[in-house]
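Appendix B, record 7
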Amino acid sequence: MSIQKAVTVKSSPARQRKAKQLEEYVNALQQYRYFLIASITGLPASVLKQSKSLLRQDGSLLKVVKNTVFLIALEKAGKNPKEAEQYLKGQNAVIFTNKNPFSIIFFLDKQKIMREARAGDVATNEIVLPAGNTGIPPGPMISNFNKLGIPTRVQEGSIWIAKDTVVARPGDVISPELAELLTKLGLKPIESKLQIKAIYLDGRIISPKDVELDVKLWRDRLSSAHTQAYNLAFNAALPLPQVLPAIIGKAHMEAIALAAQAGFPAKEAVPMILAKAEAQAKALYEKLKAIKPEL
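Structure tokens (predicted):
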């Protein structure tokens, strides 16, 4: 067999895999309205698997992609490959969905997928080792406990943690000793999730950094806008269904006050007119009494 034929035979399965991948990507791009590019660099396979399962339950599809093949698929599907190219660096997965892409981001943010700590990881939450039996026999591991400042005692053939101890706070770098200890204790303290890098929306690709995704901020803005619109309609006496009861109530009170001020004996104004007359009479009486105490 010639060298050229050998190379052709050897590379054929690779070309077939790429062709199959390309077909899958194009089909997904045609089937789903939106897609999101997510970085999976350094993401454990267990987290990726769980994310894929969660998204499938939510009606979306997650695929780990080959960057160059996906760019070709984007071109075939007419989905702005040039805009996407800057985001297709490193290892990536693509989420295909017919739902609002921002709802997918919020959905992923709510999913707390925890994994084992590795040396060099940054703690995402406070890590507390609870007091009690660790199940670890005394031996070399005692030096790890001591080095990490964890109070211990040996009891019933095991190392016991004397009291609840904070071993890391958010932002702390996990040391090799702490990573080893947490693994031996069976703890999974690191929150891990897909990092969304880009969103395909309305024919263009945008970065989540360019969009304000703070739900509380938008809720506050909407609430403030509603209040301002209501006050404007009320003060301008716009006959809108939402403000009509308040406008009518205000007009009714102003009419009664006007009638009372003018001494017009309208039914609702009579109590106010009488009260005002009584107050004026008492005031007049006090003035006269000051001049003639014998009154």
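Remarks on this record: The domain at 3-111+193-213 is CATH 3.30.70.1730 (Alpha-Beta Plaits). The longest strand covers residues 195-201.
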